[in-house]
Amino acid sequence: MGTKLNKYRIWCITEGKYKNTWAEEEPTVCPTNDTHEIASTKTSITDNVSEDSPTDPSNKPWVHQTSRPFGTITYFTGAGDNIHSAGPGQYGTGELFENVHSIDSTNSIEYIYLDFNMIENPTYLHEGYVIWANAKRDLVTMDIVSTATPVVPASNTFFNLYNGYLIVPAAGNGIYNVPSINIIDGTANIDCGLVYMPLNEEGVRPQAFWNATWDSELKLFIDIAAAPLGDGAYNLFAAEVPLFRFINKMILLKDGFLRLQTSDIEQLGHGMRIRGEIETRGAPHAWEFAGWFVLNRHVTL
Questions:
Q1: What pTM was computed for the model?
Q2: Residue 265: is its pLDDT beyond 90?
Q3: Is 13 strand, coil or helix?
Q4: Which of 6-15, 70-79, 204-213 has the lowest mean pLDDT?
Q5: How open is the CA angle 140-290-122, to the nearest 5 degrees?
Q6: In whole angstroms, what is the distance from residue 283 CA to residue 111 CA?
Q7: For the segment 160-171, what is each residue's pLDDT rounded down to a tens digit?
Q8: Max Cα separation, the chain?
Q9: Residue 212 in contact with residue 236, Cβ under 8 Å?
Q10: Ramachandran assignment for 164, one of left (phi > 0), alpha (psi -120 to 50 degrees), beta (any other)
Q11: 220 bridge partner residues
């Protein structure tokens, strides 16, 4: 069971030249104009492709449903990574995604974060699970947010701010400095604040105003350079900015467990963070919340 495609070389009489086309069956007309005649005796097959679908012993198609990108491993985690160092041994050693709200807490809104080290480990978010106890119509929202990169006022620099949060290039006439980046030699540590902006499913990247290369031997970003036209691969944010939201005000009641199921994946860019916003509502009460995520990663330890 499968489709076999042949590449046919066809002589189009009307046009007086050979044409090439891929088809399952031998063409009877010119592929560029079905009103033109062909010389069928001159038709030849120059190439072919056959895709035979695997089958079970009863000859039924054997299908493997997966959204996992080729070369990655399915990874369940309730903890982030060590984002201050790259390489094996730094994955899964970060903060736990949990929150315990005490009855005497004065904070009605609390935040929890997972950070991931993805510069040497492409990572895709698939789905998640949440569990809670003693909730009383409390709310949970989850966003992917940017790393916030500190800036300091200065003069005659290579950095400016757009809208008060996006760090954009300046031509030596900027009014801010970014201490985490050495713009003179173009280097920075792994946690400098650069946020990678992945391509979407149509191969389009959001506007990004910086380029950089990761050197896996030096464990540094090198060749950091401005992309003033917005055609770079990285952005820098002076504040924590929500990039997209995947849970909005999920209402929790009493005790429960929920699988947040999906068939899709979303690539996370280096420098992106998972943020949980936990809102306690109504009369003071103690309750607990925890979550873990299904990721597809190249390295899991």
A1: 0.80
A2: yes
A3: coil
A4: 6-15
A5: 90
A6: 20
A7: 999 999 999 999
A8: 90
A9: no
A10: left
A11: 215
- The tokens for 91 are 């994955």
What is the per-residue pLDDT across 38-85, written as a single tens digit (0 to 9) for each? 998 889 888 776 666 677 787 776 777 788 988 899 999 999 999 998
Q: What is the pLDDT of residue 294?
A: 97
DSSP 186: T
For residue 30, what is the DSSP state?
B
pLDDT for 156-198, tens place per residue?
Answer: 999 999 999 999 999 999 999 999 999 999 999 999 999 999 9
Arithmetic mean of pLDDT, 109-127: 96
What pLDDT shows up at residue 1?
A: 46
Give the number of C-alpha atoms closer than 13 A to the C-alpha of residue 279, restricted to the C-beta side.
Answer: 12
Amino acid at the residue 287: W
Tokens at 83, concatenated: 């984002």
- Domain 73-146+241-297 classified CATH 1.25.40? no
